Automatic annotation (TrEMBL):
Protein name as catalogued: Oxidoreductase
Main location: membrane
FAD-binding FR-type domain boundaries: 205-305
Membrane topology label: Multi-pass membrane protein
Compartments it resides in: Membrane
SUPFAM superfamilies: Ferredoxin reductase-like, C-terminal NADP-linked domain (SSF52343), Riboflavin synthase domain-like (SSF63380)
Organism (species): Streptomyces resistomycificus
Residues that span the membrane, as ranges: 7-27, 33-54, 75-97, 117-138, 150-168, 180-200
One Pfam assignment: Ferric_reduct
Length: 428
């Protein structure tokens, strides 16, 4: 909560600084041009904020969570799209009002005669395309790799937009303080991306040198992959977190898949457990021992770091049991584990859960059956865990199951700070 509030406060403070420098620079005579310049400035500020959101900085990720950062990234992206569209429209109509040109011809004329405007038009076109493929309708019909490749063009748009600001911006050329501020904001944002997306992953992989040591089928469609490397006791991974894994084979080196750790890090070995849900996860069964692994992470705030109570409830659905199993190994205090599956055969890692629960003095409930009737309804949860409102609740599973359980927890008056969950999606 503190990190989220702090990030909002930083954005609000910078918005106020932008407004101050904008006022200090003076206003154009045309109200449309004034609005155009202001929306352009706020669009550029949102672009810098967006870079921080997609930088995958460990400090933010551990405290806020990748799913929330991804949600902010999505809405910030639409904010960028609308502010920059507003910038283009207001500027075109504003300058057209004092010339003999219509707005479209005015925009073309500006692109041909004013340095940096053509670059801004190209940047806006790229952002419109990225915004279009980020809508739910298009996103569901695109492969992740295709969507991600198109998204990479956003960085081209960022560079073009920034050079446009430098070339024709008046607000931040009005004083040396304003210029230093603008370069400072963008320098910090670009450095965040460079460090979080390039330097840190390269450094950690060079240091740890991960390789596959074993591939163990858990069922017909679930497999566990064990990895070892150097100095794993110094890797800042916690139970409940996930990595982006690249297995450096000839046909899969370019494909990264997010999988949670299915065992708490012990300083010697890392383990992931994955269900065959696509070509990437299905291919894990055929990875050879000795294969080099490039891992980006660890990511996620689904850890014991955010506990507020001495006792806990861990609720897993399907293969969502993997981070829950890791958390059970690490978590202290009495815990109740509820594992929801369709049939007993779907209960991956159940033997490990049972042995861990027995060793730690925890309760374990295996809940089987079809989705309807809801076997994790408020009454059933209260029956299994009568004091659930006094415990931390950690939840991981398929989205429909998670949504149903979150509704049950609300009905049982479990305070929001005690509910911990993460939808494993990536920002940028």
């Amino acid at each position: 909560m503190v990190a989220r509030t702090g990030l909002y406060a930083v954005l609000a403070a910078n918005a106020a600084v932008v407004a101050f420098f904008f006022t200090q620079a003076g206003f154009a005579s045309n109200a449309l041009i004034v609005l155009g310049r202001l929306t352009g400035l706020y669009g550029a500020l949102l672009m810098a904020f967006q870079l921080v959101l997609v930088a995958r900085l460990p400090w933010l990720d551990r405290r806020i969570g990748m799913d929330r950062l991804t949600s902010w990234h999505r809405w910030t992206g639409f904010g960028i799209l609308f502010t920059l569209l507003g910038h283009a429209v207001f500027i075109s109509f504003g300058y057209a009002a004092s010339s003999d040109l219509d707005p479209v011809s005015q925009l073309v004329d500006l692109a041909e005669t004013v340095e940096g405007v053509l670059r801004a038009v190209v940047a806006l076109a790229v952002i419109i395309v990225v915004g279009a493929v980020s809508g739910r309708y298009a996103r569901r019909r695109l492969a992740y790799e295709t969507w991600h490749f198109i998204h990479l063009y956003t960085y081209v748009a960022v560079v073009l937009a920034f050079t446009h600001q430098v070339a024709v911006g008046t607000t931040f050329a009005s004083s040396s303080v304003a210029t230093a501020y603008w370069y400072g904001v963008w320098g910090l944002a670009l450095t965040s991306v460079f460090v979080g997306r390039l330097v840190l992953p390269l450094w950690r992989n060079w240091r740890h040198q991960l390789r596959v040591t074993a591939v163990v089928p858990e069922s017909d469609n679930v497999v566990s992959v064990y990895m070892s490397g150097r100095d794993l006791d110094r890797m800042p991974a916690q139970a409940g977190q996930f990595f982006l894994w690249r297995f450096l084979t000839r046909d899969r080196w370019w494909q990264a898949n997010p999988f949670s750790l299915s065992a708490a890090p012990d300083g010697r070995t890392l383990r992931l457990t994955a269900k065959a849900a696509g070509s990437g996860s299905a291919a894990l069964r055929h990875v050879k021992v000795g294969t080099r692994v490039f891992a980006e992470g660890p990511y996620g705030a689904f850890t014991a770091l955010h506990r507020t109570r001495p006792e806990a409830v861990l609720i897993a659905g399907g293969v969502g049991v993997t981070p829950i199993r890791a958390l059970l190994e690490e978590i202290q205090g009495h815990a109740v584990v509820i594992y929801r599956v369709a049939t007993d055969r779907d209960a991956v890692l159940y033997d490990e859960l049972r042995d861990l629960a027995l060793a730690k003095g925890c309760e374990l409930h295996l809940v089987t059956g079809p989705p309807v009737p809801d076997r994790l309804a408020p009454g059933e949860l209260a029956r299994m865990v009568p004091d659930i409102a006094d415990r931390d609740v950690f939840l991981c599973g398929p989205p429909p199951m998670m949504n149903a359980v979150l509704g049950s927890l609300r009905e049982l008056n479990v305070p929001k700070p005690q509910i911990h969950f993460e939808r494993f999606s990536l920002a940028g």
